[in-house]
């Protein structure tokens, strides 16, 4: 059967993909950063050569230095303070994803980060939505079909999550589909933002929570049991609640709950390697979690900082775990089932785009 065959690099590029965890300020084109920096007089970039800048971002994030890692975002945030620049970045994001075969994406950003030069958070949201719409049209003109929706993040170390949650409700019929909290896990538990999550639930709004990335099981437990997370941003540390010492893996109470409830894990392997969750792709927990039938999804996190794409993540998973077409299709359908758009729209993409796409490409027709 064709779906049981191992895809080639070209076939991986062509299959339909779904992306749930991607940061807008972590996916800029290097040349765009340079262009905007020159326009606004921002002179702190380490280089003005696009190739060298791309390599600098990757090396800074691979360095193991938190100072250097955070510095990378200081540059991208600095060039996203004007409305037209946010529109440009979002527009290019949608087009870049479409060119990589992504048919549905939820891209997240924290509006408060882009208000340093006078924009309001509503201005930021509207510019982002406009950019995604323009990029979707650009993609269509190139023969690609993509739907891009926005997730709004509150920063867990700050106190503006309630405002952001209210923006999610305000713009939920205009391209915003959910909420998230981002920023440092350690010392800033999800329960600190519980009022924002209570507001979202009262308004029947969707949300995911960054949890179980840098911090462990307690972060995941709070996100789910105290805050009501529908998805886990990363969630990779759920592996700590599974005992692999015996012949058969034994799931702890929380791991069982996450699997039984089909709570989606927004796993980002390449990013996790940079932050120390695993020493190599082959050792990343996504392989074992997929075998145990958790609702695993595959994501990019920060395409610029990790020099990654959905195609690259799939290529690495195929090499590391010998995944075939069927397994790539499974994580893609997992992601589509877990999206924050209405069920009929999710089902239509699965039945009319994802399944036919995989069947066609795996069969070579």
From TrEMBL:
GO terms for molecular function: adenosine deaminase activity; metal ion binding. One of its GO terms (biological process) is adenosine catabolic process. Gene3D superfamilies: Metal-dependent hydrolases (3.20.20.140). It catalyses: adenosine + H2O + H(+) = inosine + NH4(+); 2'-deoxyadenosine + H2O + H(+) = 2'-deoxyinosine + NH4(+). One of its GO terms (cellular component) is cytosol. Its EC number is 3.5.4.4. Its cofactor is Zn(2+). InterPro entries: A_deaminase (IPR028893), A_deaminase_dom (IPR001365), Ado/ade_deaminase (IPR006330), Metal_Hydrolase (IPR032466). The keyword RNA-binding does not apply. Keywords: Hydrolase, Metal-binding, Nucleotide metabolism, Zinc. It holds the Pfam family A_deaminase. Residues 16-355 form the Adenosine deaminase domain. Belongs to the metallo-dependent hydrolases superfamily. Adenosine and AMP deaminases family. This is adenosine deaminase. It comes from freshwater metagenome.
